[in-house]
């Protein structure tokens, strides 16, 4: 493959040794689900955009998923050894280009659009994003994100720096007061920014940071209120329950302090979005040296699954009328499941070669841990990991490439260390199931044989 050329979203790229995108992934490029008015992804996007209205916020969508390593990681301050950069987590087109892993890849360009027009002080961006990940009902290698940001202090007519700062502080305070109040129950566990863990930036004024953070939190609580209202539309007033959310401290290379918002859902705290005060260096690089502001980012599927009661993330990619005809623009309705076709479980067991000496393990085990597989690559702390010889995402990728959306989930069901040789054996259980038809035994056997063949050829594992 290296040296070959590939056209993605209309542009040619020369492949090299870094390339790990597969055709099954590239086939999903260009669907632009967020543009189909009756699709739940688009309905959810519009609902979120309506909470950040024009003219204060411009709304962007970005159809070309290929971005530079610079825009996806470097500009945002990702350290060189950040696990998000590794080929086990990210789809590289070649050594300089990749499929964006988050909408933050467009922050730099979006910030550059601010400041020219006084009234536009923020933006939202919606786009498809790509991550190598585990296979289960809530993970798909392509999903959708939305990102928002807001900046103060861009007024071009205020000359002196001191005047500019006091004017912007006053404006922030006024705008904070003007935000609508909500009736959701909020627990704030992230109010102290003087710690080393989640510090404010040294060049920032503490009063201003407080204002930015409060404006950020109140704006997102308002978003949650609107989402919750929409989800409860069909429930009689008396039966409605208030929404419970909480703020927790977080880490992102491009914000500080940083926060996550979690929501109480069926008795469990579910992480919904990441946010924080934008790193000043990012604003400075975009020419907004007098600005201060916040940013947030969220996965649309998670919101849409909660809003519409959609149980399997693969359904968003369905072209089945029984799925698509259930939704229409501007309406939040509950998904009516159509018949489920039978699952087909197949196991694959193999010996993995011992990891080369010196390779440091990723997560709890060299081949990946549940936390690493389900976790969020961009927020992991920079010191955590190095790619190891066999990574759990490698088998996920093989299954994806062979079975596409016919694989519902892949689980590690057994691991075993041979008492004398010390070699490790892993057994994964693959659940093959179509959302649209019953798979035949022969078809599943063919897929499973192909998975085994590729595991052997690509990773040198010894099948048991
Ligand atoms: N890009 C982050 C992610 O993908 C989310 C984020 C966006 C966090 C903007 C902070 C600010 O997880």
Report on this model:
- The structure is a single chain.
- This protein has 464 residues and is an alpha+beta fold.
- It has two domains: 5-324, 2-Layer Sandwich (BirA Bifunctional Protein, domain 2); 344-354 and 389-463, Alpha-Beta Plaits, CATH 3.30.70.
- It contains twelve helices and 16 strands.
- The chain has helices spanning 23-26, 40-50, 69-74, 107-113, 161-178, 206-231, 280-285, 300-308, 321-324, 370-374, 392-403, 441-459, and strands at 5-8, 11-14, 57-61, 66-68, 97-99, 122-130, 142-152, 185-188, 244-252, 255-265, 268-278, 292-299, 344-352, 407-417, 424-432, 462-463.
- An eight-stranded mixed β-sheet has the order 3-6-7-12-11-10-9-8. Strands 14-15-13-16 form a four-stranded antiparallel β-sheet, with helices on one face. A two-stranded antiparallel sheet has the order 1-2.
- Helix 5 (161-178) runs parallel beside helix 6, helix 6 (206-231) runs parallel beside helix 8 (300-308) and helix 11 packs across helix 12.
- The longest helix has 26 residues, at 206-231.
- The chain is globular and about 70 Å long.
- The model is unreliable at 355-388 (pLDDT under 50).
- It binds phenylalanine.
- Phenylalanine binds at residues 102, 104, 147, 252, 255, 274-276, 295-297, 376, 378-379.
